[in-house]
Design brief:
The protein has about 140 residues and is mainly alpha-helical. It has one domain: Large-conductance mechanosensitive channel, MscL, domain 1 (Non-ribosomal Peptide Synthetase Peptidyl Carrier Protein, Chain A). About 65% of the residues lie in helices and about 5% in strands. It is built from four helices and two strands; from the N terminus they run ααββαα. The chain has a two-stranded antiparallel ribbon with strand order 1-2. The N and C termini lie far apart (about 70 Å).
Length: about 140
């Protein structure tokens, strides 16, 4: 239980929750970008195709008969247009994450170079070195 309290108090849970929330809404924004901004012009260029409506119907919908005899049967279809939208959404998210990681790595490299450029303070001489220096100076006199 103490280990769990330490984990909670370090702030890792809060950071993880913030990351999850941000990722969820980032995904929603990208999905809207694909479905509402990118796909309509692409569909127009391809002859007025609405990707979200593209599907392969295996069994068409059968409405309930007028007399009420027989049940209605829902349409059975493979919605490959929605799948195409999901693939494009994934590619955009993957590219965005790639760019963020690339920028992070560049920033990290710059920080490491700056640390290397700062000259390290010369190490203090040991007691033996100080003693030897004093002896040398005495011998010179």
């Amino acid at each position: 239980m103490n280990e769990f309290k330490k984990f909670i108090s370090k702030g890792n849970v809060i950071e993880m929750a913030v990351g999850l929330i941000m990722a969820t809404y980032f995904g929603a924004i990208i999905k809207s970008l694909v479905n509402d901004i990118l796909m309509p012009p692409i569909g127009k260029l391809l002859g007025g195709v609405d990707f979200s409506q593209m599907k392969y119907v295996i069994q068409p919908e059968i409405p309930e008969s007028a007399e009420g005899i027989g049940d209605a049967i829902a349409e059975v279809a493979i919605n490959y247009g929605i799948f195409i939208n999901a693939i494009i959404t994934f590619l955009i998210v993957a590219f965005a994450i790639f760019m963020v990681v690339k920028m992070y790595n560049k920033m990290k490299e710059k920080m490491e170079k700056k640390k290397e450029e700062v000259p390290a303070a010369p190490a203090e001489p040991t007691k033996e070195e100080i003693l030897l220096t004093e002896i040398r100076d005495l011998l010179k006199k």
